[in-house]
Amino acid sequence: MTVKVRFAPSPTGKLHVGNIRTALVNWLFAKGRNGVFVLRIDDTDLERSTKENEDGIRTDLTWLGMTWDETFKQSEKFDRYTAAAEELKAKGLLYPCYETPEELERRKKIAQSRGKPPVYDRAALELTDADRKDLETQGRKPHWRFKLSGGRAEWVDLVRGQQSIDTASVSDPVLIREDGSFLYTMPSVVDDIDAKITHVIRGEDHVTNSGAQIEIFLALGAKPPEMAHMPLLIGADGQGLSKRLGSLSAQELRNSGFEPMAILSLLGKIGTSDPVEARDSLQQLALEFAFSKMGRAPARFDENELNGLNSHIVRGLDFASVQARLARLPYGDKATPEFWDAVRGNIVTVPDATLWLTVVYGGGLTGPELDAVDQAFIGEAAKLFPAGDVTLETWKVWVDAVKAKTGRKGKGLFMPLRRVLTDQEHGPEMDRMLVLIGGDKARARLVQAAP
Ligand code: GLU
């Protein structure tokens, strides 16, 4: 059996970290088994779905390397959904209801006040043909509910184990709205049947849906696919994803300079028994992925961890692979392999190199505020700065001379020199920085700091 999965985002917004994780787990599971990854665009909500969001989703998935083998949009399949609805109607499993939202709300309150669960009471099933005709003459239009069996919907979830949903405890789901439009529930099942999806992998917020959807699969004469419901993402503080993190989009991450493999390594490992470590390919992540490693506890998304993975990956990138990206930063067209080798261990993202590009290739720095004592010290250091070209040896030779002359050592010796030459208190090795900055610029900075 060929494994076939689908990732089914709604193009009503951008792809955010939660979606990326769902896409990723689908992708890893399928590709680890030579399977097929389908991108389905859930655009039945024609009003809120936009072409821009759809294009954005495709751009983001491509950027992340999660290419798809097949793709389609739900909006192309309304005929199929209509046919499936007719089939369910003919079987007496899809029935018209005429209650207004206010009526439903009132009944819900009454049920609750009697200590009963707020489940739809199926009053519409009691309507006679004459009743329905009456209502329709009054201008009422039906919405359509699927008649749940009232028994238990059961499956062995790949993450959660044995599941059993009492369908008597949930309302018959509305499949078609008053205006004739389809809600997500049935089209998803029809598509999974048509596309021969073998595994439905999604967030645990869909567990209750799955109960109803399993019954719809069976009602349409199909075998329900295997199911896996993943625990949701939470923030580093153990709380639910903050609004900001929850809406953190692939586009924002890209614009901030995050590497796809940092994002994917994090989202592929959190919530599993594997340690969170950087991997350099999706294929590697796929080899390591297994549902048996996924726990029931929520997966913690920690931005510090993302930063750590990103800086690890950036440190491993060679100049050729970042040259074009550096060139888009200020002074980046001047960057050399030596520059990159010096700074790559001191940045979190490639765009962070902007600081060091400015230090090395930019004109005058503002320069630190020095007190009189440090100014005098820099004055001495300036006099000892060797004439001519600087090499990788220059820094040590110079600092030794400054040390001998001034008696300073440790931080008191290095820090003012570093600050005057780079305007920073931390950064790449100074022997390399000095060569990159060059003798003339270094001398000018020393003079400017101690006129
Ligand atoms: N469009 C649905 C969602 O984004 C798809 C759910 C599913 O995977 O079935 O929640």
Structure description:
This protein has 451 residues and is of the alpha/beta class. The protein has 5 domains: 4-72 and 183-234, 3-Layer(aba) Sandwich (Rossmann fold), CATH 3.40.50.620; 79-176, Glutamyl-tRNA Synthetase, Domain 3 (Glutamyl-tRNA Synthetase, domain 3, Alpha-Beta Complex); 235-315, Glutamyl-trna Synthetase, Domain 2 (Glutamyl-tRNA Synthetase, domain 2, Orthogonal Bundle); 319-361, no CATH class; 372-449, Arc Repressor Mutant, subunit A (Orthogonal Bundle), CATH 1.10.10. It has 20 helices and 12 strands. The strands form 5 sheets. Strands 1-2-3 form a 3-stranded parallel β-sheet. α16 (372-384) packs across α17. The chain is elongated. The structure holds glutamic acid. Residues 8-10, 42, 184, 188, 202, 206 line the site of glutamic acid (GLU).
Total separate domains: 5
Distance between the termini: 78 Å
Please report the total strand number as a whole number. 12
CATH architecture assignment of the largest domain: 3-Layer(aba) Sandwich
CATH fold call of the largest domain: Rossmann fold
DSSP helical segment count: 20
Strand content: 5-15%
Q: Give the uncertain stretches in residue-range form.
A: none
Helix share, percent:
40-55%
Describe the biggest sheet? 3 strands, parallel
Molecular shape: elongated
**Broad structural category:** alpha/beta
Question: What is the CATH homology-level superfamily of the largest domain?
Answer: HUPs
